[in-house]
Amino acid sequence: MTLGGWIIMLVSVGTVSTLFTWCIYKVLTTEGEEEKLHGFEAETPDMQDKEKDS
Fold this sequence. Notes:
With 54 residues, the chain is mainly α. It has helices at residues 3-29, 45-53.
């Protein structure tokens, strides 16, 4: 591989590794994010009909 190929490869791998590390760091260290999580409660039309019948 040429010198240019090595440089491009190292810059690419370094950039992706840095981004990945930063993302993991942010996920593990950001405080108070639990309140911002949005849940998904699956409620289908047939479940709504059962609640009305009760």
